[in-house]
């Protein structure tokens, strides 16, 4: 007989309790994996969206909590251009606009770009093409948005009471892009009464020097960039991934996901503690017998923790399978279209498994110690 | 203690006392005792005289309040852990068997072997051999509840032998058996003693067991009142 066989026999003798405890952990792990998976998926989509157009560095205003609130004078581009290593600059304004579709208000991400910048380089259009003038009121729609508002090339879209002609429909794997729209920068500035302000600048770096840490160096220079009077421009430069990871809404999303997961896992852990404590109390006599026939304390601990581990990891595997199925299904809903890839990152799946191991070790520690303290004579005298 | 006597003794009990806190019972009251390797000892006495208490002390299942117990010359009362001793040197047959209810006979016999070095397959084979040796191989895949009392007793003996102990302690091994099963168990003990050279210490109420043993110890009120070799004509 293997040790594992013994653990299995011990667990299967009280089937309903085993299934319920394991089920509790399955629910906890499913919750954690789903929430953390979605948050991570969201983060990756955001990074992907920002990195898609070979943007290497994003420059925004320093010292503000929400990147979306960043406001920089477009003229700063001239200072940035002087920084050694900067190859290409593209200013951008990002706005959130409420759009009414079938009486439902949906927030839409609107980008203001200058025509002809490198941002358009690897954009693919399903209809029409990019705008060429900063002066004409034109708009590019992401295909998901175009579909949900039922607009095509040649139609007009109203933004803040102004009419814009749809000149192109683009597609993009990222939901941030495909659910949004792009306007000529000056047009968006005028519509939103933003003067000559932009949210930030997208940069490409000159790698011809062959130095490997070029991006880092350029970022350092940008962060300490000053104007002609020697005043700090207060810029925050970073890679798209760095900016996304530092973004407040990302941190909130991830914090919420972790908090909820921890509550679920804590409840699962209490279930484990309760079940195993009951098991140890019920099996007092048997455990004493194991000690009487020579089992070391550590072997008793291994047995109890082993049972916890089987319960917990077994539950976690079911929970992970459920989470994968759930997220896949969620991603097919129109609401989540391209906001989710439907794939949970492998690191998150491993996190789920890791959580179940932690649940087993923490939830099982006290029962295991209780069991180890039973003396051999306890079950033998006075029967 | 000279080394010559140390070599000749397996267990030495020096002035051991055991009381139970509830009721202030003195179960073992200043016992001195030496057991040599290969002896067949019967411990007899009235109910409540402290036989089980003494056997539990000899088997290191319990600790004395005072006094010392030596096993192979080593002071076990001073050892922090006696698990290894119980696992490898001592086989214990409990009064009510104490088999694990969810395990089959074959699995029950393997339980002590987890403290040994055998592989899962070797454990299984050895357990089969032991069940065969106690004549119960045909009930290998039954659980205790499906066995007769005599059959359970044999499984318990097979388990006690799992790690080839040097001494077998048995608390009333025939107490729950009818005379025929009882005699069969005693035949088994005779065989283990004669052919394997196993030291046997048996607590019993039965005169028959007392007569089969080589040495008889009588206890009353936690004290040894008689300790003598059983004469051939007594047997
Ligand atoms: N765990 C215990 N707690 C309190 N008192 C105990 C305990 N175990 C035994 N005793 C008491 O110690 C005394 C000796 O008990 P013990 O079981 O050793 O006797 P025994 O000779 O084995 O009796 P029997 O022949 O009935 O099995 C008895 O008075 C008993 O009530
Ligand atoms: Mg007794």
Explain what this protein looks like in three dimensions:
The complex is a heterodimer of chains A (383) and B (235). With 383 residues, chain A is an alpha+beta fold. Chain A has twelve helices and twelve strands. In chain A, strands 1, 3, 4, 5, 6, 7, 8, 9, 11 and 12 form a ten-stranded mixed beta sheet that branches. In chain A, strands 2-10 form a two-stranded antiparallel sheet. The longest helix of chain A has 37 residues, at 15-51. Chain A is elongated. The two termini of chain A are 29 Å apart. With 235 residues, chain B is α/β, with parallel strands linked by helices. Chain B is globular. The two termini of chain B are 34 Å apart. The chains are: A alpha+beta (383), B alpha/beta (235). The A-B interface holds A 1-3, 5-6, 9-10, 13, 285-286, 289-297, 299, 375-377, 379-381, 383 and B 52-53, 56, 59-62, 81, 83-88, 90, 92, 94-96, 98, 100-103, 106-107, 110-112, 114-115, 120, 123-124, 159, 162-163. Adenosine-5'-triphosphate is lined by residues 20, 22-23, 25, 27, 45, 47-53 of chain B.
């Amino acid at each position: 007989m293997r040790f594992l066989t013994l653990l299995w026999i011990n667990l299967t003798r009280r089937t309903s309790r085993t299934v319920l405890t394991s089920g509790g952990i399955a629910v906890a792990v499913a919750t954690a994996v789903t929430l953390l998976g979605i948050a991570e998926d969201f983060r990756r989509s955001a990074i992907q969206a920002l990195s898609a157009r070979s943007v290497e560095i994003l420059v925004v205003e320093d010292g503000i909590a929400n990147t979306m609130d960043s406001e920089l004078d477009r003229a700063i581009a001239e200072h940035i251009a002087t920084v050694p290593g900067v190859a290409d600059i593209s200013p951008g304004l990002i706005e959130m606009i409420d759009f009414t579709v079938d009486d439902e208000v949906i927030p839409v991400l609107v980008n203001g770009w200058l025509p002809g910048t490198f941002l358009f380089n690897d954009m693919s259009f399903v209809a029409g093409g990019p705008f060429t003038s900063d002066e004409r009121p034109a708009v590019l729609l992401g295909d998901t948005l175009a579909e949900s508002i039922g607009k095509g090339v040649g139609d007009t879209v109203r933004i803040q009471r102004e009419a814009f002609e749809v000149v192109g429909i683009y597609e993009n794997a990222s939901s941030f892009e495909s659910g949004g729209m792009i306007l000529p920068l000056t047009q968006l500035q005028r519509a939103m009464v933003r003067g000559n302000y932009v949210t930030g600048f997208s940069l490409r770096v000159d790698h011809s020097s062959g130095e490997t840490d070029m991006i880092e160096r350029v970022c350092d220079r940008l962060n300490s960039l000053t104007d002609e009077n020697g005043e700090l421009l207060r810029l925050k430069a970073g890679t798209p991934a760095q900016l996304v990871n530092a973004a407040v809404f990302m941190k909130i999303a991830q914090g919420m996901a972790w908090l909820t997961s921890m509550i679920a896992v804590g409840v699962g852990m209490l279930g484990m503690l309760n079940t195993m404590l009951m098991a140890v109390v019920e099996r007092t006599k048997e455990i004493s017998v194991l000690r009487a026939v020579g089992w070391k304390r550590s072997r008793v601990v291994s047995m109890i923790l082993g049972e916890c581990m089987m319960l917990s990891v077994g539950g976690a595997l079911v929970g992970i399978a459920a989470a994968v199925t759930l997220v896949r299904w969620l991603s097919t809903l129109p609401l989540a279209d391209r906001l989710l890839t439907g794939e949970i990152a492998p690191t998150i799946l491993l996190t789920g498994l890791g959580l179940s191991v932690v649940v087993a070790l923490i939830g099982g520690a006290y029962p295991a110690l209780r069991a180890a303290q039973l003396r051999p004579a306890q079950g033998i005298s006075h029967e | 203690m000279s080394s010559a006597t140390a070599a000749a003794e397996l267990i030495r009990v020096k002035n051991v006392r055991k009381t139970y806190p509830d009721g202030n019972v003195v179960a073992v009251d200043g016992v001195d005792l030496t057991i040599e390797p290969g002896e067949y000892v019967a411990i007899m006495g009235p109910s409540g005289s402290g036989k089980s208490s003494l056997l539990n002390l000899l088997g290191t299942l319990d600790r004395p309040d005072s006094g010392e117990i030596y096993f192979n010359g080593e002071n076990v009362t001073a050892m922090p852990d006696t698990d290894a001793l119980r696992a490898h040197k001592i086989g214990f047959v409990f009064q009510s068997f104490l088999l694990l209810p969810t395990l089959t006979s074959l699995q029950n016999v393997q339980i002590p072997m987890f403290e040994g070095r055998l592989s899962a397959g070797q454990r299984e084979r050895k357990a089969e051999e032991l069940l065969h040796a106690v004549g119960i191989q045909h009930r290998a895949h039954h659980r205790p509840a499906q066995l007769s009392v005599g059959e359970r007793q044999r499984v318990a003996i097979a388990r006690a032998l799992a790690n080839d102990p040097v001494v077998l302690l048995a608390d009333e091994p025939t107490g729950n058996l009818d005379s025929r099963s009882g005699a069969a168990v005693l035949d088994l003990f005779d065989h283990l003693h004669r052919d394997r050279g196993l030291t046997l210490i048996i607590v019993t109420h039965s005169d028959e067991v007392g007569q089969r043993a080589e040495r008889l110890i009588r206890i009353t009120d936690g004290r040894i009142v008689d300790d003598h070799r059983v004469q051939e004509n007594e047997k």
